[in-house]
Amino acid sequence: MIRDKSATKPAKAAPKKAAAKKPAPVKAAKADEAKASTGKIAGRKGIIAVAAPSFRRERALIKRGVWPVAGCDEAGRGPLAGPVVAAAVILDPDRIPRGIDDSKRLTAEEREKLFDKICATAQVSVAVASPSRIDRDNILRASLWALKRAVAALPEAPRHVFVDGRDRLDTECDCEAVIGGDGIVLSIAAASIIAKVTRDRLMCALAQDCPGYGFEQHKGYAVPEHLDALDRLGPSVHHRSFFAPVVAARAKHMPWTVEPVQDLFSVTEVQVETGVEIDVSANL
């Protein structure tokens, strides 16, 4: 007898309905909101949004009746050659050029354009500390001297000054030092652009006076090309005498200008005549 095999097979279960997919959370939006204070944007690893300098501190002083307010900054503390250039700027609150930022964040073309706009709308002054003053006073004192002179040279005497760095200036008005001020205070950022562009132009002029060093390219900084030129040509009159690479180049090319330094740890032999009796007990 032939049995119906289909009768013994269990009935096939009805296909399960696919579970409804939960909507994916908007991770990027939440991450962006959570990290807004740090400036990090989710999904863009390694990219940090840096806030541009603002006019907030200047406006707070204006509301208190304090005006004019100046910002000042310098360019050229680190190079081996050339001057330190300091600038002071009083921005016109009603005519502030767009795009002002820390000069280090801008391209050379952007700095040149902003230089012209700032000079056309604001009160600007510049002071220069020469390499000879840097050699005499040291780089910090020379920079502070130039900054003070730039503030004093403004067409209108400010009542408050913001200066980049940790050192306040000895000015007749109130002075406030702001660490990293060129990226925080708009007036300091404007001064950083004026100082940077002015110094770059000066270094290009010095390149024509002293060819071979590449001042027009590296602006006097200690890049390999500049160090090679120093070793090959020796220091020029525009180099800072007491910066270590310049001292080494001067010792090689002009050794007679380098004063020998006494070794404080050397042992000096003292000869004692024989036959002289020393009464040790006399000092007891």
Pick out its properties.
alpha/beta, 284 residues, 5 strands, 11% strand
Describe what you observe in this structure.
The chain is an alpha/beta fold and 284 residues long. Helix content is 36%, strand content 11%. The chain contains ten helices and five strands, in the order H-H-H-E-E-H-E-H-H-E-E-H-H-H-H. It has helices at 5-8, 27-34, 56-63, 108-121, 131-137, 139-152, 186-209, 215-218, 224-233, 244-253; strands at 69-75, 84-90, 123-129, 160-164, 174-178. It has a five-stranded mixed β-sheet, sandwiched between helices. Strand 1 (69-75) and strand 2 form a beta hairpin. Helix 4 crosses helix 7 (186-209) and helix 9 (224-233) packs parallel to helix 10 (244-253). It is elongated, with a radius of gyration of 34 Å.
Helix content: 25-40%
Structural class: alpha/beta
Going across the biggest sheet, name each strand in turn: 3-2-1-4-5
Total beta strand runs = 5
Tell me the quaternary state.
single chain
| Portion in beta strands | 5-15%
> What order do the SSEs take from the amino end to the carboxyl end, as H and E?
HHHEEHEHHEEHHHH
Shape: elongated
**Largest sheet descriptor:** 5 strands, mixed
- Over all CA atoms, what is the radius of gyration? 34 Å
Structure annotation, total helices: 10
Identify low-pLDDT runs. 5-10, 18-43
Distance between the termini: 136 Å
Arithmetic mean pLDDT: 84
Brief characterization of the structure:
It is built from ten helices and five strands; from the N terminus they run H-H-H-E-E-H-E-H-H-E-E-H-H-H-H. With 284 residues, it is an alpha/beta fold.
